[in-house]
Amino acid sequence: MLIAGAGMAGLVCAARARELGLRPRLIEKGTRPGGSMLLSSCVVWRHLEWEDFRAECPAGDEELQRLIWERLDDALAWLVSLGAQPVWEDTENPRTTGKRFDPHALTQVLARDVELETPLPEDAEAPLVLATGGFPRRLAEERGLLLRANPWSDGAGLDYAAARGAGLTDGMAEFYGRVMPAPPAHIREEDFVPLSQLYGRWARIFTDDGREITPAGVAWHESDLAQRIGPTAWFVLDDAGLAHAQERVDAARAVGGTVVDAAALPFETPPGARTAVHVAAAVTHTMGGLRVDTCARVLAEDDRPIPGLYAAGVDAGGVATGGYASGLAQALVLGLAAAEELAG
Ligand SMILES: Cc1cc2nc3c(=O)[nH]c(=O)nc-3n(C[C@H](O)[C@H](O)[C@H](O)COP(=O)(O)OP(=O)(O)OC[C@H]3O[C@@H](n4cnc5c(N)ncnc54)[C@H](O)[C@@H]3O)c2cc1C
Fold first, then answer.
1. CATH number, position 333
2. Tens of pLDDT along 165-206?
3. Which of 27, 50, 217, 261 has the highest Cβ tally under 10 A?
C-alpha cells in the first residue's frame, strides 16, 4: 500500500493503516512532513448543526458531508488516543465544534517512516492513496493569486487519477482563500495566519482603478471575499472599521505591505475613510477535485470505483462546494476511511 503525501490525510491514513496491521509506505514530495496542516491554525471542526453545514455548502456532496459530520467526533477522540493533546477543547466559534491542536506536535505524533523528497511516481504500485493536497499552487499561478499553502501541492494526485479515468467534481475553480497584504509585503509561511486581513466585512472594497466592489454581505469566514476581489484590491476603513482591524493593519504594514492614508488614493473614497490597505487574494486549498465515495475510493466518470485507487484530504473534491468547511476534518475522516477500506 502506497500513500502519496504526508499532510493531514496521508499521515492519518498511514497511522490508522499501521494500527490495523497494514504496512503502508508513505512518500512525500516536500522536505518535511505535515503539508499545509503544519502551517495551519489546526482547528479541526465541523458545523455544530447538520442543517448549517448543508445550508453553508449547498452544492457539496451530501453523502461525504454526512460522513465527515457524523465521524468527526470519534475521529478526534482517536487522534487524542494516539497522544495528540488539544490546545483548545473547542473551537471558540459558536457555529462550530471541534478541537485545536498544535500543528507541530500533531505532526510529530503522526509522522513515522516518511520518505521525504519522494514524489508520486508516474506509475505507482497499487493500492494507492492520493493525499497530495489538491492543486492550490497551480490554481494560484493560473489566476495570478498568492499561495497560502505548502509549496508542493500542484495537482499531482489530480493528474494521476484523471489520466486513469477519474471523474472530477463541480467547483474546480473554487478555493478556500484568505485576503492577505499585497506585494511588496513579505509573507513568510509562519505568518500565514497572523497576516490574514480578516476584517473585510468592516471595509469598503475598491478595485485598483477605483471601482467599488463592496458586496452586500460577507460570510463569517470571508473566504467568499477572497474569491471575489481578484488578484489585488483596496480595503478602505473608517474609524469604526479600524477599531476591528487595527492589529492586522499594523501587521500588514510591519511586513512592508502598502498601508496609506485614504486621502492619498487616486480615486474618490467614501466620507470618513481613514486608512487604505492594498490586499491580495490567496489560495489556501482547492475545493474541487477527484470524485470519491464514502470509502475514499476514486470514482470514474461512470460512477464506478477505479480499482486500487483512493483519495483523501483535499485531493477529494466536492465536500464544501459553494461554501466553506474544515479541510482538516475532511483530511482526517477521509484518511481514516481510506485506511479502513484497505484493511477490509
Ligand atoms: C495558514 C493556514 C491555516 C489553515 N487553518 C486551518 C484550520 O484552522 N482548520 C482547517 O480545517 N483547515 C485549515 N487549513 C487548511 C488545511 O491545512 C488543509 O485543508 C489540510 O491541510 C488539507 O490536508 P491534506 O492532507 O489534504 O493536504 P496537506 O496537509 O497540504 O498535505 C498534502 C501533502 O502532499 C504533499 N505532496 C504534494 N504533491 C506531492 C507529490 N507529487 N508526491 C508526494 N507528496 C506530495 C505535500 O507536500 C503535502 O505534504 C489551513 C491552511 C493554511 C495554509
1. 3.50.50.60
2. 999 999 999 999 999 999 999 999 999 999 999 999 999 999
3. 27
Q: Which residues line ligand 1 (CB under 6 A)?
A: 4-10, 27-30, 35-37, 39-44, 119-120, 131-133, 148-150, 152-153, 156, 192-193, 284-285, 313-314, 326-329, 331
Spatial distance between the Cα atoms of 326 and 320, rounded to a whole number of angstroms? 8
What does residue 302 show for φ and ψ, rounded to 5 degrees? -90, 15
Same domain, 58 and 203: no
pTM, two decimals, is 0.97
Determine the Cα–Cα distance for residues 206 and 209; give it in Å rounded to an integer.
Answer: 8
Q: Radius of gyration of the chain from Cα atoms?
A: 20
- Does 6 lie in the same domain as 102? yes
Same domain, 60 and 158: yes
CA distances from 17 to 13, 35, 95, 105, 259 (A): 6, 19, 33, 20, 50
CA distance 100 to 122: 36
Query: Helix 327-343 and helix 62-81: axis angle, to 10°?
Result: 80
Q: Could you tell me if 171 and 288 are in contact, meaning their C-beta atoms sit under 8 angstroms apart?
A: yes
Dig out the grid coordinates for 134 from the structure: 489538491
**8, 332 contact by CB (below 8 A):** yes
Distance CA 45, CA 95 (A): 10
pLDDT digits (tens, 9 = 90+) for 89-119: 999 899 999 999 999 999 999 999 999 999 9
pLDDT 10s digits, 303-339: 999 999 999 999 999 999 989 999 999 999 999 999 9
Which atom of ligand 1 sits closest to the CA of residue 312? Answer: 26
Task: Work out the angle between the directed axes of helices 103-110 and 8-19 (0-180°, nearest 10).
Answer: 40
Domain ends where: 234, 256, 283? 283
Q: Give the β-pairing of 128-130 and 305-311.
A: parallel
